[in-house]
């Protein structure tokens, strides 16, 4: 393992560990982390959720459901992009801002907006760059997560799933990819 790959994996593990740490921290702090760090659209308090909500999860199954694809997508991003953390930050901030501006009135938590943003980023950038490795990653991600992307942005009656967070993430990821590969 080269130093760069090792550092990339350490950063990915640290990112995921922060999500797990916040989850376990929520059991010992005397306040509701979801309310404090979740994203509530069009509220002053909800602004904190733009950067923070990807690290907060509703329950263990929610956290596990986000951890696996996020880890896979971050590895693929790190292996195919020179500035993976700039992409992650841009997707988090843009998707959070879109959700804050346009989302349903609810407390939105979880990394699925980032997951959907990374799916869209990797697919769009792979085709935009027209280079072999990003194109292979793009096709692979489309094969693995394309159905999830399409189904996850559709509203479901009675569901607590943040389809609007997924949609905001996908739009942000596609836009970040387009802007990053334009020219």
Task: Describe this protein's structure.
- There is one protein chain.
- The protein has helices at 3-25, 33-37, 49-52, 60-80, 84-102, 112-129, 132-152, 163-181.
- The chain has 183 residues and is mostly helical.
- The protein is globular and about 50 Å long.
- The N and C termini lie far apart (33 Å).
Termini separation: 33 Å
Oligomer: single chain
Biggest pleated-sheet summary: none
- Structural classification: mainly alpha
User: What Rg is obtained from the alpha carbons, in whole angstroms?
Assistant: 16 Å
- What average pLDDT do the residues reach? 93
What is the string of helix and strand elements? Answer: HHHHHHHH
User: How many E strands?
Assistant: 0
Low-confidence spans:
none
How much of the sequence lies in strands comes to: under 5%
Separate helix tally? 8
Shape: globular
Considering DSSP H and I runs of 4 or more, what fraction of the residues is helical?
over 70%
Gist?
The chain has eight helices and no strands. The protein has 183 residues and is an all-alpha fold.
Summarize the helices and strands and which ones pair or pack.
Blueprint: H1 3-25, H2 33-37, H3 49-52, H4 60-80, H5 84-102, H6 112-129, H7 132-152, H8 163-181
List keywords for this structure.
71% helix, globular, 183 residues, mainly alpha, 8 helices, single chain
